[in-house]
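Subject: sequence -> structure tokens, single chain

Hey, anyone have a minute? Need the predicted structure for the following. Not urgent.
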Amino acid sequence: MARKVLISFLGTGRTGKDNSSKRQYETTSYKIEDKEYQSSFMADVLIQHLNIDHVIVIGTLKSMWEELYRVMSDGKTYDEEIALNTGIKIESFNCKTNVSKGDIILKMLSQVRNLTPIIINYGINQEEITNNINKILSIDSELKNDDEIFIDITHSFRSLPLILNSVINYVNEVSKKNIQIKGVYYGMLEVSNANELGYTPVVQLNSINMLNEYIKGAYEFQNIGSAYKMSELLKEENKSYSVILEDFSESQSLNHIYDLKSQVQKLKSITADKLTPIQEKVIIPMLNKFLNKFDNAKNDSQFQIELADWMFSHRQYGYSSIILIECIITKGCEMLRFDAADRNKREDVKKIITNSGKIKKNQDEFLKNFSNQQIDELKSFHTLWGNVNVIRKSVAHSIGIKLSKSKMIKDLEKYIEETKTIIYK
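Reply:
Had a minute. Here:
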């Protein structure tokens, strides 16, 4: 059964007018969904409300660990003298105190079940920030496969939840564990006084995490041309759009050139009116940027050259070279008014291009089937075809060539521009 793990932050308590710390949070009434809880700790509320199995608490040396010890201990393990002595020691700490002094805190909290404390620096310089990130990364070692994560960002330095957000992305994207972020919570203490609501509403910030996921999906599409993640995100809320994006990604992954054209047309059917505001803000600009690439493509060869260029821009050089070869054949078919979808006609055009560079062309039995005008129209493709085909063969057939990889990529970019000149003539 999956564990429920709460990650929370611990502050120093409120500072009075005389600049003295109370070393505690005031007890307040937290309202979450239709339930109300009286507690001084937001984490305590979530532990009760969500039936949390394990708690990870992040704080500095100055955080009120002794108060956490009091709230989270049961009657049998709580020792008031230990709490008092530890609290006095913590009061003497400041931003210059070495984190190793926190051993006294860890010893006190070792008596509390299902609690992992992580003591970090204040983060007042780059070295401390880096150390904090390394410390918070250790959360990964505390998590188990299939854990459900809940995050409380109510207390402590405002920079720490930002760091944690990045670490959660690390856990999601890098960790091999199957971990889900189920909720991000914030106790809005700002409106808890009598002049406002009179209680502290607990708000869920899951939309922020969802926005991050959609941004990742857009990043994958714009950088590697994959819409798989975006399709997965839409699967429950918009099945039809999810299928369209998945079909596009499968055709793109297979480099299925002709099917891709129909898939691009289907992408145009994705409209803002059937998306949530967050989905609209991310998906529509992402798709428009891609679809605008093909605005000027009036026929198959023009679509294919733009597709080859798009593949190249996404560093899919092998696919780009294969599409470029097919694009040249398609253009040849269009020039001779052949059906570009007819395999035999495509083979004929390919033979004309590859044989038209021969000096004694009339001696070639195949070329005798075509007029000199037809041969001359495709003759200009001969050198370009040969150059691109060197790269295409190297990719498709794992044939070694003397050109370096950087030279191949640079040449491919040049050949794409040369082909564009022919295609849009």
